[in-house]
Amino acid sequence: MPDAAEIIQVMERLGVKGVCRVRCKVLDGRDKGKILTRNVVGPIKRGDVILLKDTTMDSVAAMSRR
Questions:
Q1: What is the CATH number for 49?
Q2: How many structural domains is the chain composed of?
């Protein structure tokens, strides 16, 4: 089940495809209160709420495996 997360910081824009790296705080679920780094596609700003499919892995960790 997806968990809601609030965008607390837009860190950088990646390329021309509309991808942004953001920091978000999980609002509910098992990892409530955890701050994660995620890549988000589309228009986004601070304070928006997104739904995360998975709250176990950060995008920085995923990028370093390539």
A1: 2.40.50.140
A2: 1
Enclosing H/E stretch for 16: none
Q: Rounded to two decimals, what is the model's pTM?
A: 0.78
Say yes or no to pLDDT of 62 above 70: no
The string of pLDDT tens digits covering residues 4-40 is 999 999 998 888 888 999 999 999 988 899 999 999 9
Q: List the beta bridge partners of residue 35.
A: 25
Domain that holds residue 59: 3-64
Using alpha carbons, select from 36, 40, 34, 44 the residue that is nearest to residue 61: 36
Output helix, strand, coil percentages for the chain, rounded to the nearest 5: 10, 45, 45
